[in-house]
Sequence to fold (471 residues):
Amino acid sequence: MLVEHDNFPALYADYLATGNRLLGMEVGIVSRIEGPSYTVLAVQPAEAGYAAGDVFELGETLCALVVGEDRLVAIESLGADRRTEHHPVYVDHRLAAYLAAPIRVFGAIYGTLNFTSSIGRAEPFCDEDRDLVELMAGSLGRVIERDIAEQERALAAQLIHENGELFENAFRHAPIGMALVGTDGRWLRVNAAVTQMLGYSEDELLEIDFQSVTHPEDLDADMELVRSVLAGEIDSYRMEKRYFHRHGHTVWGLLSVSLVRDEWGRPRNFVSQIQDITDQKRAQQELDRKNQELQRVNAQLEELAMVDPLTRVLNRRAFSQRLDAELSQCQRSGLPLSLLLVDVDHFKRFNDDFGHLEGDKALCRVAHELSSAARQNDIVARYGGEEFAVVLPNTDGAGCRVVAERMRTAIERIASAPRPLTASVGAATYVPRRNRGTEIDPAGLIRPADEALYAAKGSGRNVALHADDLA
Fold:
């Protein structure tokens, strides 16, 4: 919202950067359309090849479709759409995907909010993508409307000083609410916009004060600002506040208040301007809700990408990332790092004897026991098939042997499987201080652990061996 940004460039940059990120698009543009002219108001990123102030013929742009169809336009592949397969934007610039919505100001198309990408989309834009762009375009339109109204309000305020008759006309017919309010809070005069916004007649409002129609949660803040103006601490103030409509529902207003003094400098009355921002607030809340929902879905997708769907421990991809991070950390801190590779013994035979469903249950039991036997900072992952990996940060060889034996024993004690389960464990430890000046990659830790696992299986299985103990 404009009240949250210093200027329109900052507002546009915020919306475009947010849209590019949430939609996965490359370039976002806010345009102004006047007749056949298309003017770039803002573009993100700055190095996209366009700049604010660039002017094009509307017919040379994809936004001509938005104006012509008077609605949101979503094209996943410009080359596959009959409307755009021969368009110069596709032919010359090789853009592939396009999503745009009209920005409406006072009911007419003011410009467009559009996002493009040089990479086509395999799937159509979803309803959430379309809703997001329409919500953002609607919000921008209301901000622009409010800015225009604010300019009209500023002009009306200037007319107060220039000509009483002109002020009277502006006061009565201003597109935003205008009121004269006494220092005690009573309405002295209101224009038609105020009565329409609050649902009271002019006579009804003149019988009460503004406190009576102010939401109690906003009243204290409003009254404190009134006190500061009357005390001469500030000249004016501006705030968003809630009013109660005559029918009981809440109306959001952007309130601007300044103090009029008499010729002796004594407070006479307040001049208040009230812009109805209820629709904008609701749109912003809906946009926030959509953003939160998108973040929640993205977090779920990210979690699914890192967790093994069967055992619910980390998958191999996540294991690789965590091992890389722990190796970097141990090399910085000089503290040891250990790794266990755990392989369920004779698992193929178990599957053949009892079926894959029981095999899956057995792997889940093993994963549970490994997680239960792990310490707070240990990292348990499914390495592949019936093999698991456990990263042990800040753990030397002696500690590694203790944890390995505890995990082997925990698996051996599983009582809920059709027959006893055992596992072989191979362990390895990297000590930066012992290997001063030598850094290893993940393979340098996995390889000796795998050799120890091979030796453990060769020695009869159901045993834990450390690489340092191999002959």
User: Anything to note?
Assistant: The first helix runs from residue 8 to 23. The two ends are 70 Å apart (CA to CA). The longest strand covers residues 250-261.
